[in-house]
Design goal:
This protein is an alpha+beta fold and 229 residues long. It has three domains: 2-41, no CATH class; 73-107 and 191-223; 111-186, no CATH class. The chain is built from seven helices and eight strands.
Length: 229
Amino acid sequence: MLRALAIALLLANALCFVWVRGWLAPAWPAPHSSEREPERLAAQLHPERVTVLVGPAASAAIAAARAAALVCLEAGPLGEGDLAGAEAALAGLHLPEGSWQRDAAPLPPLWLVYVARPADTTVMRARSQELTRLQIAFETLAAPAELAGGLVLSRHATQAEADAALAAVTARASPGKALRWLRVVSLPEPPVRLWLRLPQADAELQEKLKALPPEPLAGGFKACTPRPA
């Protein structure tokens, strides 16, 4: 009886050894066979896409990946009176010196085809009626103060465009009723618009910027937009 038991144990051990060694595969795969070669290689997805980098090449790839993760963010436009509060909010993050900058962009000049407001309201009413009769659209200008109350027929980026528009409108008048009270004027130089720009914000900094209160930052930080020099 003992001899039969010993033989059975020997056979069981031998069978276990053969199984563990993988000699019974593929019918009976060895334990943890998926963690061995070549099974692990066979389980790869798109191995042709894998490139092994060593030494300087690996460092360059890491640097390129980090650079790709950096984004340019900006808050604005801000008026000069709003700039102090916006910079105070940003300074609370204790960013490294030079990590953010001011970016200024003046508004483009604007030229108007314009009817000045005369002292006599009857004259202004007559001019408005004449423009309406000619089916020329206009609106009353509210600001700046020196031009307020006058009528604006059109707005233009250059004086040449405004002069051409004035000539086209004048040509619509009836013979003997020239619209001599129409003229071209330029709006006073508009204020400079300011942005606070961070040209290289990593993921950690992006999260910090999102947590800042949006009110002093003109709604918060957004992706940078190109502006004319």
